[in-house]
Please model this.
Amino acid sequence: MARTHEISDGVYLINTDNYRLNSGLIVGADKAMVVETGAGPRQGAEILRAVRRITELPLVVVNTHAHFDRFMGNAVFEADGVTEFWSHPRAARAMEQYGDQQRAYVEVLEPEMAHQQGANTHLVVPNRFLPGDGTRASFTKVELGERAVTLFYLGLAHTDSDVLVGVDDVLFTGDILEQGNDPAFDDSYPELWVSTLHDVAALDRYRVFIPGHGEAVEQAFITRMAETMEQAIEKIRASALSQEENPTTAAMYHLPYSGGTTRILLNRLQWLENQEREGKGVSHTRFTESDTTGLTGPITLGKA
Model:
């Protein structure tokens, strides 16, 4: 069952057990906003029931990025009358192109979604987007009636299209922040993620930060997360430059993450470096292409 916590007046954190997902609800005078809809119709319905225990207002949805646990519950909300779904434009393109490939991830907890069988198992792709071409920080406001929510993008981090959702002194960060688990580096840009974390920590107007999973955190947690990630990257770089026979393996024993996470981080850094050498990396990619960037990573592509 979903657990609901009022973070501030009219701003709620909704926890559901599957994937330790954090969703959000922001209630205005005319509309309410839901942040993240879950991994399919079961979790989506659970989140919607929690929302409807609080408000019967028309809803607006935000998906913070293009991973299955963020958007595969959208159809449940569409059936409830939602017509306005927000994301970064690159996230929407990734959902449209690769969403079906991500169905395999939810086989155990959302079998209907995995096999596209039954009600509310079709993909609903966002139709409202942050402005700009995706290459720079961007901001937009969504009016809910006597309350405006700020959606913004600060740069490459956990994915290529992470949207943050700010209202009053609360910021929903999606998986830019991870509490209680190691960061998920599969689709990430680790060095740029560090910079984005420092930018988030510098947002003085926010007091409470809601990560994609885990407990709410404060600014000091964000700074520690950035410093830990930066130190891990530096250790990998130093190991790669050393004369050790197997520096990659050696580095794994000196990093602050679990062995599995460390391996993913190592592989991601190496892959990004190879992309740069081949002229396909971040500095060479046109982020205005109609397709995704080509740098998204295995989770988005459904190949993890």
Remarks:
- The mean pLDDT is 92.
